[in-house]
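From the shared-data thread, chain only:
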Amino acid sequence: MDIRLTVNGRPHTLDVDPRVSLLDLLRERLGLIGSKKGCDHGQCGACTVLVEGRRANSCLALAVAMDGRAVTTVEGLADGERLHPLQAAFIEHDAFQCGYCTPGQLCSAAGMLGEPGPSAVTENLLDDPELTPHEIRERMSGNLCRCGAYVNIVSAISEVAR
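Structure, as tokens:
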């Protein structure tokens, strides 16, 4: 099937097998290897990208379902040589160890910062709560880090959220 999508601001027209995941398309066809294949079941978040600005597990999304959409990977977060504020904060706060989950953590955090409304830990469900460390931990719970860099990840996101 022919699909058109914009990845990191660049338009692409591709002939894809309808069974190909967005993750495999990004890595194997477009050479964007930042997004990682962790569990391949949507449970770890290593493959998280932004689709139209919203977080998505690219291992679960079919590439054909992205026809006409804009996708941002970790490679597209920076503005040229200038790092995205989250990327700079992750470096400053040492919010990574092995780095395998970092691209998914960054994309998830970037999407989370733009998501209004309560979460499962928000006391008043009518509020658009402040992104406290407690809120951030809840909202980032779909992104796992086997190295346990969570404290620094939350610290980095908190800095950018202020």
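The first helix runs from residue 22 to 29.
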